[in-house]
Amino acid sequence: MLANTEALFQAVTQLSQPITLLLLVLGIVIGLIIGILPGLGPPIAIALALPFTFYLDPVPSIILLLGIYSAAIYGGSISAIAVGIPGTGAAIATVQDGHKMFSAGRGGEALGFSLTGSIFGGLVSVVCLAFIAPLLAEFAVRFGPRENLAISVFGLMVVVRVAGQSLSKGLLMGALGLFLTTWGLDELNGTERYTFGSYHLYEGLPLVPFLVGLFAMSEVFISAERAHHKIQFNQSSLKVKLPGWSTLMKMKDVLLRSSLIGTVIGIIPGEGAAVGAFFAYSEAKRRSKKPEAFGTGIPEGIVAPETANNATVGGALVPTLTLGVPGSPAAAVLLGALIIQGLSPGTQLFVEHPDLMYAIFIGLFAINILMIFIGLVAIRFAARLIMVPTSVIVPTVMLLSFVGVYSVSNSFFNVGVMLGAGILGYVVRKLGYSIAPLSIGFVLGPILENSLRQSLTLADGSVQEFFNTPIGLTIYAALALTILWGPVSGRFKRRQIS
Amino acid sequence: MKKFTHIAAAALAALGLTAGAANADYPEKPITVVVSFAAGGNADIVQRLQAEEISNQLGVPVNVINKPGGAHIPATMSVLEAPADGYTIFNWSPPSFMVVPLTRDVPYEPLKDFVPLFASISASNALYVRSDSPYTTFEEFLEGAKENKLTMGVNNLGAPPNLSAVQMANEFGLEFKTIALKTVPATMAGLIGGQVDVAVGQVASIYAYKDEVRPLIILDNNRRAFFEKDLPGVRTVGEAFPGKEAGVWVHGGLAVKAGTPQPVIDKLLAASEVLGTDEFQAKLPKSVGYHWVHGPEGVTSLIQEGVDLYSPILDGLGLLHKK
Asked: Does the N terminus or the C terminus of chain A have fewer Cβ atoms within 10 A?
């Protein structure tokens, strides 16, 4: 692919048009703002900009949308850290350590870590996309029901790692999350399950309103209790600090591993940025020498999920561009934008439009670089949010969440779901349970159910056929290894001591 | 001065004095088109392009809003809950006007509660195998499918590609293990990746995957203009096997709430005429099929055709909702 210098030259020419450069900056700014606001995530952000691309050429439109996509995923971490409310689903895993670090007076540092991780993950995934996309596409089409089932079962392991203090409480929450996804019509035979006679529940509880309620609303209720407490902080914590070279080198394993996890999860259709972030967080915790420190406000707890969620962007584009199958909800809207431009994303896109592909690779690279500077400006303001009294933040977040959730499908039912999930989250947290495992159960539930039942159809009663999946077996083996590694190595060490 | 007229109009409207005049002045404020799909899909894209065109004709903005979820019912009901004044228009599609009302107890009746304006976007289904498949013809596939229970990929159970597969299975006495892969592109990707042996995609699915898949037959006996453009030389079931039935009903368009004043409907019909022109159709992505039917009468009988086609197939699957 490197041989096609003519297409490369065309791509660079198109990218250096003033209008494209302007849209690149504009996309990042819009994406950041929308990412920061709870409820409004990348799919909405891209959908809002979609009508404007009617009047643009393919390259500037896709650059605008990619800028929005990348920046929105990053932006979610800013509110996660500074307010304790994830701006997007992708930043859920960042809340625990990010906000603890912020509250402990290390806000500027925490924001610096999330920016660095996001950029690193974004860049690694672009490189993967640019150099091995066709190879990765080959990998993506191998993911059918049996493979998706294996990865979802693996995902349930993550519930255990983010369970918090008590494992049994964590498992209970994970199970509750799974249970809530059984609501709605049965996709195979149309049976109504827990629809309570309302057609609004035919497609189950809507994801975004549920997650916003669970995280943002419950946080709003909890902070409302202590609205009059004065937060103690140190002026020096306001200063934004990017991690130095030596810190980065110490974290290079976390950075690289999380980037790869994010890219791979992004490639698998149906698994989005939130899942990638949780996988990376859990893997960093598992590998850490001090896993108990996770959740108390440590840099690794921010870097791992933030690196991974931005790495899902490049990953999600692989099936989107090479197969025409979106790797994430945001990529689905992006796919629409390409189709409007008269392109047919699929196996032919690379062959027919090499210049567009180059423009996407180089553009996405440039977006990540530019995001450093625009991100730095944004987090300077965000670090100062700690000075804003809770009595101002609470109603503002509440209002923004209402607007955001309503706009997802222009429906008041969704606002009701958000409030219900908020009350659920509040009660659960007050009882000393963690909401992170609940959200993982909720995100993985539909994929788990669907892939399990389809695998059973494929197997047609044969156990051998059910496990007739090399990729799936590899995933199951890795799962067994991660479960057994701890006890086995622990026993081995003990034997050596005695 | 313009501002004054607006205020005056608003004041008159508030007093309820302009019922007759309002129709004559229609439209005097932005129009909303409700799409029951999420942004980005074919239905949404075509609707946005059509909204542009209608907006140019009527001189007011035409805004597309997406209300996905709830088996398309909340979007449909939101139009029926708005006044019948032509300012809220519904983008009907196979799920909202055909499959969902046939399979569930819904709080509306498409042909009683709505007046359809036109049908535009369309599609037909075709049977595909991987390009390295041993089945190079439909006849070879038939032999293979009788010997082994093949895995069939469709987008959603109860949706038109699934119904085409079921009709084919009934007509030729075949049996499949059916896997639903959510969307048509995902179905094609599943076929390429070997998740399924054979898949029902749309005729236009060929564009994105032309080296990887092979069309065997078109599962629609009503030959349409776009068949020869998309799949040149591929036969329909009826052409290859006279007497065997094959039908697809995938249409979509705009409708207003029943009770909308006739002058308003006439204006909308006049404004939408441009959507049937070759000039407009040339602006559409090539993966979009188009079958133009203009006016309530034509669309009503088109919808009735769909009911007649799909009711027995859904009944055979045990999915038909009996009133």
From this structure: C
